[in-house]
Design a protein that fits this description.
The protein is an alpha/beta fold and 507 residues long. It has 14 helices and 23 strands. The structure holds 2-aminohexanedioic acid (UN1).
């Protein structure tokens, strides 16, 4: 396949790198199979402890030097990374689509998201602002400044195999940190492709070897990182279960973690909604990325007066969905990541039925020519109540739960009545409803939208959520502060030393 060649992906690829150098490792072989056609794309090698140590030591040895680069100079390098990603958008988008299974449109969208964060980071590199305060003492000045942390490790998930890494990496670099990336072991080749693109830009700019590192591996490598006191910040995307373990380990050494975990996102469809517009938001939210986004719409909370009309529209729209090869732009829905995910989808459907869910659109595995990988499933819709155990749980698959409400208070309570708190939306043309949803007593999520679905957040806003979503914020707004340490400075430019709080201490 031409895109693999363009990206320098081979049949066998080393998996540990400090930039331009690729390090030998005796770790396990990680094979990458495409969920699109079940074929093996290539393989890589996980880091063993020695290779991991080599990476950490190299990264540590250059951290101080990189910090001395003025932030706008680091930003200039990130600007060039963005340009390189523009050049590689087509092959990289195709690899994302082929290795992960999302539609080609979404594969390109993911690379676009990388380009967008680079642009944002370039501007930010001149805006790492601290505040100044007025001192209570005469001839004193107070201000705060932001310093780099050191090494930032980034653990990313298969569903956004490149974009979420870039949100972290682009900001971490302009903030003066080095990064060590552990991509998902389900999408390792995306990591290799990106490593090569960035290495070329970094080398051209004489960025020290070790600022951008790659460490392939499974859970074990993540554990090394969480225990490693040389890594001040571990940023991780994945399941709530993983996040709970990782954050406990990082907290035990008083390190920082930045978590982006599960969502159980709902759209409230009010009787005052534009139903045609709501339909697009709901269907894309539920079936985009085959239901494998953290921001996927998992629940629709529909006003009882429009429930039948809206669910009829949904059922009709689902009948038109084309499931198949995501690289063929005629298709809407690609495969799930692997057959383990298919089994979880099937088990969730079983549990939903056993708990009383009534299917309006039946699910099931798609078989036949073109579906040999066994990873293609039918997006389905079940009518439920919010309290069902399966509805409270995030299943990474295109299963949409619909439920009825009669008052907005009740709808908001249902929207908030799950353990997760990532994204939420209301479809309404009624100002009072919209504002109530956005008020402090409204949605409890990190993201709350009006007349937009739950997925597809832009890079400029802070991304993340509350409760079991983990509380972290990445990408825009002031999320950069997570990658720096704050220092408060008080300077006395007078000729006496008055103490704060009026304390007298004379010698
Ligand atoms: C994720 O699913 O982990 O808002 C990230 C969105 C995308 C990012 C999703 N911009 O759907």
């Amino acid at each position: 396949m031409q895109f693999l060649e363009q990206l320098g992906i081979q049949t066998a690829n080393k998996g540990v790198s400090t930039g331009t150098k690729w390090i030998e490792s005796n770790g396990a072989t990680i094979d990458s199979f495409s969920p699109v056609d079940g074929k093996k794309i290539g393989s890589t090698v996980a880091a063993d402890k020695a290779a991991y140590e080599q990476v950490i030591n190299q990264s540590l040895s250059v951290a101080k030097e990189w910090q001395k680069w003025p932030a706008p100079k680091r930003g200039e390098v990130v600007r060039q990374v963005g340009d390189a990603l523009r050049q590689y958008k087509e092959p990289l988008g195709k690899l994302v689509s082929y290795e992960m299974g999302k539609s080609l449109q979404e594969g390109y969208g993911e690379v676009q998201e990388m380009i967008d964060i680079c642009d944002l980071a370039v501007g930010l590199s001149r805006q790492l602002f601290g505040q100044t305060m007025h001192s209570e003492r005469p001839t004193h000045r107070m201000y705060e400044q932001w310093h780099p942390l050191g090494i930032v490790s980034i653990i990313s998930a298969f569903n956004f195999p490149v974009a979420v890494w870039s949100w972290n990496a682009a900001l971490a670099w302009i903030c003066g940190n080095t990064t060590i990336w552990k991509p998902s072991e389900k999408t390792p080749l995306c990591g290799i492709a990106v490593q090569k693109i960035v290495a070329e830009v970094f080398a051209k700019n004489n960025v020290p070897e070790g600022v951008n590192c790659l460490v392939q591996g499974a859970r074990e490598v993540g554990e090394w990182m969480s225990k490693d006191t040389r890594i001040p910040l571990v940023s991780a995307t994945g399941s709530t279960r993983m996040g709970k373990e990782l954050s406990a380990t990082v907290a035990a050494r008083l390190g920082k973690s930045l978590l982006e975990l599960g969502g159980n996102n709902a759209i409230i469809v009010s009787q005052h909604a534009d139903l045609d517009m709501s339909l697009i938001g709901a269907v894309f939210g539920a079936v985009g990325t085959a239901g494998q986004r953290c921001t996927t719409t998992r629940r629709l909370i529909i006003h009882e007066s429009v429930f039948d009309t809206f669910t009829a529209k949904l059922v009709k729209a689902y009948a038109q969905l084309r499931i198949g090869d995501p690289l063929d732009t005629k298709n809407h829905v690609g495969p799930l990541i692997d057959t383990a995910a298919v089994n979880m989808y099937l088990s969730a459907i079983e549990q939903c039925k056993a708990q009383g869910g009534k299917f309006l659109v039946e699910g099931g595995v798609v078989t036949g020519p073109g579906y040999e990988s066994g990873c293609y499933v039918k997006p389905c819709i079940a009518e439920v109540t919010n309290d069902l155990a399966i509805v409270q749980h995030e299943t990474f698959a295109p299963i949409l739960y619909v439920m009825k409400y009669s008052t907005l208070d009740e709808a908001i309570a249902m929207q908030n009545g799950v353990p997760q708190g990532l994204s939420s939306a209301i479809m309404t043309l009624n100002l009072r409803e919209a504002e109530q949803f956005l008020s402090a007593q409204g949605s409890d999520c990190g993201i709350a939208n009006v007349n937009i679905g739950t997925s597809g957040a832009e890079i400029g806003g802070a991304f993340g959520g509350e409760k079991e979503t983990g509380g972290g914020r990445e990408s825009g707004s002031d999320a950069w502060k997570a990658y720096m340490r704050r220092q408060t400075n008080t300077i006395n430019w007078g000729n006496s030393l008055p103490l704060a709080q009026g304390i007298q201490f004379d010698l």
